[in-house]
Amino acid sequence: MRLATFNINNINKRLENLLQWLGETQPDVVCLQELKAEQTAFPLQAIEAAGYGAVWKGQRTWNGVAILARNAEPVMTRDQLPGDKDDAQSRYIEAAVRGVLVASIYAPNGNPQPGPKFDYKLQWLERLHRHATALRKSGAPVVLAGDYNVAPTAIDIYPTRSWDDDALIQPESRAAWRKLVGRSWTDALRAHYPDQRIYTFWSYLRNRYERDSGLRLDHFLLTADLAGQLTDAGVDREVRGRPEASDHAPVWIELDR
């Protein structure tokens, strides 16, 4: 079973890129983030023509998350992260797919920091931690996939001081990530490549993709049962180098199930 996560950075603008990648790799489940499309603008017809069922939570201009399933219909279980009934940002969706509970996550960026956007980021990650704990305790096999907007350690960002003030690498952000992962979740990409610099995001600025000046922001967290089934993981880096590409590359894992 191949699962992928891809911050598409505007699904309609980059639909051709998405469809090309889907045709090439045919993942069984895909979590998408940053749709940048309101609910009625999701390109369902094109997605279905590519062989995928879909559930999504759109939002005009920003945010938006989706889960696609190849030759199947995801069964949506939740379209909002619990814990704040006034939070109107479309950043979380959850569905049952092929016997696995899958969440597509688009955590807040948090810049500029300090300030209200950074406070919201930390509060959102704490809500995610509480919900993830509840999911894990349910006993279901769970995958939490998406753009967490955290580069967890120094090896997850290219050697530089230019990001020192950025919310993605602040001590508070990294502490929130460590608390979320704890001892019960497995960071799949890092588990498979424990010491390797692997990036999933390259800014459009200053030829950072060409220089491989990237960050690892897109992650899979797995419950223990699924971690035991992990056989492979990787980043489709070349997708980032295509014309009109997202600034993220797809990340994928293979499970023996």
TrEMBL record:
<dbReference type="InterPro" id="IPR020847">
    <property type="entry name" value="AP_endonuclease_F1_BS"/>
</dbReference>
<keyword id="KW-0378">Hydrolase</keyword>
<dbReference type="Pfam" id="PF03372">
    <property type="entry name" value="Exo_endo_phos"/>
</dbReference>
<comment type="similarity">
    <text>Belongs to the DNA repair enzymes AP/ExoA family.</text>
</comment>
<dbReference type="InterPro" id="IPR037493">
    <property type="entry name" value="ExoIII-like"/>
</dbReference>
<dbReference type="GO" id="GO:0008311">
    <property type="term" value="F:double-stranded DNA 3'-5' DNA exonuclease activity"/>
</dbReference>
<dbReference type="InterPro" id="IPR005135">
    <property type="entry name" value="Endo/exonuclease/phosphatase"/>
</dbReference>
<protein>
    <submittedName>
        <fullName>Exodeoxyribonuclease III</fullName>
        <ecNumber>3.1.11.2</ecNumber>
    </submittedName>
</protein>
<keyword id="KW-0460">Magnesium</keyword>
<dbReference type="InterPro" id="IPR036691">
    <property type="entry name" value="Endo/exonu/phosph_ase_sf"/>
</dbReference>
<dbReference type="InterPro" id="IPR004808">
    <property type="entry name" value="AP_endonuc_1"/>
</dbReference>
<keyword id="KW-0479">Metal-binding</keyword>
<feature type="domain" description="Endonuclease/exonuclease/phosphatase">
    <location>
        <begin position="4"/>
        <end position="248"/>
    </location>
</feature>
